[in-house]
Amino acid sequence: MAGDTVTRARLAEAVYQEVGLSRTESSALVDAILDEISHSLLADGTVKISSFGTFAVREKGERVGRNPKTGEEVPILPRRVLVFRASQVLKDRINGDGTGEP
C-alpha cells in the first residue's frame, strides 16, 4: 500500500487478504471500525490507537485573519478541528529506526 491513497476499499481488501473474512464481511468490519472512531471522536473528543497515535478534537477560538490579496481583516469564527499526534512507535517506523517498513 506504499505510495498510494489508502481508501476504505483498500483497507477492506487488506482485511480480506490477511484475515480471511469474505469481502462483504471485510468491508463491513472496516466500516464498523471507522464508524466507531467517528462516534468516539464526537462523544469523547479523543481516540488513542496503541502504537499508532492519537486523534483528538480541539476547540479553536475566534480570531482575526487577513485576506492576503487585499489586506482586509476578516473574522474567523470559532470551530472544532481534528488533530492527529503520531505515537513514538509510528515515528520510529517512519524514520526507519524501528522494525517494519520505512
Automatic annotation (TrEMBL):
Keyword Metal-binding: no
SMART domains noted in UniProt: BHL
Keywords assigned: DNA recombination, DNA-binding, Transcription, Transcription regulation, Translation regulation
GO molecular function: DNA binding; structural constituent of chromatin
GO terms (BP aspect): DNA recombination; positive regulation of metabolic process; regulation of DNA-templated transcription; regulation of translation
SUPFAM superfamilies: IHF-like DNA-binding proteins
Coiled coil spans: none
Pfam families (UniProt xref): Bac_DNA_binding (PF00216)
GO cellular component term, pick one: cytosol
Subunit structure comment from the entry: Heterodimer of an alpha and a beta chain.
Protein family membership: Belongs to the bacterial histone-like protein family.
The protein's role, per its UniProt record: This protein is one of the two subunits of integration host factor, a specific DNA-binding protein that functions in genetic recombination as well as in transcriptional and translational control.
Protein name listed in UniProt: Integration host factor subunit alpha
